Amino acid sequence: MNLAEWLVRSARNAPDAPALISGNEQIATYGEFAAKAAGFAGALRDCFNVAPGDRIAIFAANTVQYLVAMYGAWFAGAVIVPVNAKLHPREAGWIIEDSQAVLALITDKPGAALAGMLPESCGHLIDLQSPEFETLCAHTPLPAPVSRLQSDMAWLFYTSGTTGRPKGVMMTHGNIHAMAFAYFVDVDQVYETDAAFYAAPMSHGAGLYNVMHVLKAARHVVPASGGFDPAEIFEHGRATGSLHMFAAPTMIRRLVDHARASGETGEGIRTIVYGGGPMYLADIIEAVDVLGPRFVQIYGQGESPMCITALSREAVCDRDHPRWKERLASVGRAQSCVEVAIAAEDGALLPAGQSGEIIVRGAPVMAGYWNNEKATAETIRDGWLWTGDMGVLDEDGYLTLKDRSKDVIISGGTNIYPREVEEVLLVHPAVHEVSVIGVPDVEWGESVCAFVVLASGEKADAAALGRHCTEHIARFKRPKSYRFVDSLPKNNYGKVLKTELRKIAEQTGENP
Ligand code: AMP
């Protein structure tokens, strides 16, 4: 079934329900949203010869027209290729070429820079915020969404590509349906009175999460800033009400800092789904203390979109269970539509309590990588997706991540998980943010290096942090070197870029 059917149904069931809101301004009801998407689909077919299965790139900032474009493309049976708006136009151009997209939809920033750089396969550049786009949306509409099977591709998602070129993950209509159904079962309910709030990039998880809100005819709010601004989020919570949003853990840290400084309580924010990177125990405990029971965690990856495990709202708030801290430091339990297991390198499944690579099987798992059979065969084996993440399951099915295999530090032949060291440093009152990497060490192979952002007005030196570490973890795990920095490099999803930290460490030598 074509995902655009969900929009058609909501338009039929609730034509006057507010659908698209830009800042504080209503741009379209569900009836109007569906009409625009059907019109754009008609234009794609009639004016640009777009055929089912063709790819359409979107290199745009967050805007409500992103959703019109997405559903218009699906309506026409096309595949969307949302490109991270922070990429260099040359990198975006590479993705457009690799996906053989026939059309690129942009906003002025970052998209205008693509002009003159488009590959031959891509003949047109259309600004989503231009009168041209509005005219195309008013074209003779397609009468109904083009028929699509569960196995047909809907979204070609390019991975962040920290090693080599990014790979295109082929997400099908069926994968995204599965993600949406599991959301209702394992993450949260959605009602017509709710509002999906886009504070994180729509090219990624926040954008994927629109579909549950379309199905339930809820509102979609793109804030005036187009991104993450704590003051704006709290204001919308009060004014718009019933917000649902996806946020990276680093964004929650900033929300909590803002709430502490301003006295905000999070009124009107119903659910903050967090994931995409490690949430530290100290941070989530503080977040619940300050903002209350508004949080649900998910663990997923492009290859099984937003859909591997979930840690429920109840589990995030529970402080009575004897192992509540372990649970809170975990990523929760398998979502309903997947099996999650831990495997040894040879593929043998490991029992509870043993660490290995996390593998996943089920309906949301991607169809494979675009034009890359080799990488597909390496990643999906006997139907199991090998995530590249290391982890351990407990007897109750809670999964704890142990960093990506490539981030594990091997010092003197022993594995050190950066996350464990980070968790300890973060409970030191002077530490605001921290990220730990391995750096080459002649004696030990690798040693632990901590990049630390101190809390404002606080002081701590390497000796004080070293003492703190030895009070909590084995001596060999404590950082051998510290870098005190003003901020950590992050991508626009708020993920700390350890590759950048490694480069900094390499360029500045071991003891700057
Ligand atoms: P991406 O495919 O860009 O969404 O990145 C997915 C990766 O982010 C996963 O393979 C994990 O390494 C990491 N990740 C996702 N969710 C979580 C989470 N809840 N906690 C820790 N790491 C996460």
Characterize this entry briefly.
This protein is of the alpha/beta class and 512 residues long. The strands form six sheets. A nine-stranded mixed β-sheet has the order 2-1-10-9-11-12-13-14-15.
Query: Which small-molecule species are bound to the chains here?
Result: adenosine monophosphate
Any idea what the radius of gyration is?
23 Å
The N- and C-terminal alpha carbons lie at a distance of: 58 Å
Mean pLDDT metric: 95
General form = globular
**What percent of residues are in strands?**
25-35%
Q: What is the CATH fold-level name of the largest domain?
A: Rossmann fold
The percent range for helix content is 25-40%
Largest sheet features: 9 strands, mixed
Total count of helical runs of at least 4 residues: 18
Number of E strands: 26
Uncertain segments = none
Number of domains: 2
Name of the level-1 CATH class of the largest domain: Alpha Beta
Structural class of the helix and strand makeup?
A: alpha/beta
CATH architecture of the largest domain: 3-Layer(aba) Sandwich
